[in-house]
Description:
InterPro entries: Secre_tail (IPR026444), Spore_coat_CotH_CotH2/3/7 (IPR014867). Pfam families: CotH, Por_Secre_tail. It comes from Flavivirga aquatica. Residues 475-537 form the Secretion system C-terminal sorting domain. This protein is α+β, with helices and mostly antiparallel strands. Among the domains are: 2-73, no CATH class; 281-463, no CATH class; 472-538, Immunoglobulin-like, CATH 2.60.40. It is built from 11 helices and 26 strands. It has helices spanning 167-178, 219-222, 278-289, 292-302, 305-318, 369-377, 382-394, 400-416, 419-426, 434-458, 466-469; strands at residues 2-3, 8-11, 16-19, 37-40, 43-47, 59-63, 68-73, 78-82, 93-100, 105-115, 126-132, 153-157, 196-203, 206-214, 235-239, 260-261, 264-268, 328-332, 339-343, 472-474, 481-485, 494-498, 504-509, 514-516, 523-529, 532-538. α7 packs antiparallel against α10 (434-458) and α8 packs antiparallel against α10 (434-458). It is globular and about 85 Å long.
Amino acid sequence: MNIPEDHFQIDETNSLIVSHIENIESYNDLSTYSDLILSLNTVNYTFSTVPNNINYTNSYIVNGSSKQYILYFTQLPIISIDTPNTILDDPKVLANFTYSDDEQVLTSNIGIELRGGSSRSYPKKTYDLEFWEDDNGEDTHNVQFKNLRSDDDWILDALYNEPLRLRSYTSSKLWLSMHTPYYLKDEPEAKAGANVEYVEMFLNGRYNGIYNISEQVDKKQLKLKSFKKGEIRGELYKGISWSGATKFSSISNYDNNNRVWSDYEMKYPKEDEATDWENPYNFTDFVMNSSNTDFTNNIWSKFNYDNYLDYFIFLNLLRATDNRGKNIYLAKYKADEPYYYVPWDLDGCFGTIWNGTNENITDDILTNGFHDRVIKLNLNNYETTIANKWFDYRNNILEENKLIESIEKQYQFLSENKIYERESIVYPNYNYNEQTLSYLISWLQNRLSFLDTYYGDLLSIDNINLNKTELSFSPNPAKTRIHINNTNKLINSEYKIYDFLGRQIDKGEINNNTISIEKLKLGNYIIILNNEAHKLVIK
């Protein structure tokens, strides 16, 4: 077996080899071989025993010239970073970078620095990379990995405080499947957040484990309008702490000589273009201090309503405690357009918090000052709208089996491909076992059950705007059938009934003013009539 240069890396300290292999299916039957030699860029390693086959789910002992190594074959891209410099949090220092997957080998100079806050104290670091044409970063160039965007600026997320190394990956993918920018017709390449892919990383010849290589949340990702002729158009502010303006808990005067204000860091416009906090200050002041009438009439011209709904649902599904204020971006596409939220750093979620410890709380609702005011005022029948959206999601992308299947599939990949095994060689801070997975799944099931009840309670008859639709049914609670009032608009239309787990229980066509429910068990349900959700109680 011949493995070309850059498609393998060797950790001499841990006697570990991680390698790609072409046409692995051609090694399904090795029973006729008495010896097997692996050639890594012309250097030979002999298998201590000839295996029955070669696959990604086994490890192998191979003998080098003077010692034995554990050999793994990987389906993931391999990154190698080498530098004689000490990597600091600022400035970036020069390093050599190599990336290889089944499609490309990329080598480049990079500038590298540490990234993160508390995570800098972890033994496994997160890094910010910039791809350089030269040795000092005066000229940069774009690169692309898999289906991620082409750019010169990337994050290598260490995932050290994630017990299964999959929460951030799963959450990032989930947000992108739930939400798209409202201005997508004008900017078809805009994304709602950062996409990620798994890689395995070596630093200065040492295996560093599994990482997410992540796109940046920036002007380019969101396709914000550029600063032009002294005019601020697109805006981007990064939440860096939990209090102050980011949570709408307090507001302070701003200083336009400072790129940080009240727990926000200004990311765009750039420092050499403009620093002006007037717009986010005015927005925060409006949310906190405007009259109820002014807030009710104008908030959704200042903040995008669909983004608000999706982010609230996403935040509470994950119970991402850090992402109420810290770990969010406040963005604006262009002047005179509404703000919207973009999540980042999604590691403390699905039953864990920022430091990776379990927090087995499933029965609360996360909010900030903005959320609290919207909920209190029930703007534009907000409760019904968000509950309808929740149950719509529960019947597709947030369906319980789909969520669990996605998590289990990712776990099985990492486990069966022995990525957990080699991760634990260098960072044995967690047990990547079935018990840890069971905790996550159990937490998710309990969280979904609580949220189904929470959103279902918002759909009480008292919260339905009957003046708008003039649609109602009785009795409620019911036993064997319900009678629909004002059925003229519903004749020959479809009704659907769901339980509080989002599963469709019954459906049919409305031919008169009666729907039979005698087959349904006692309990609470959601019935969809005329594309509106109503709470139905059967006793």
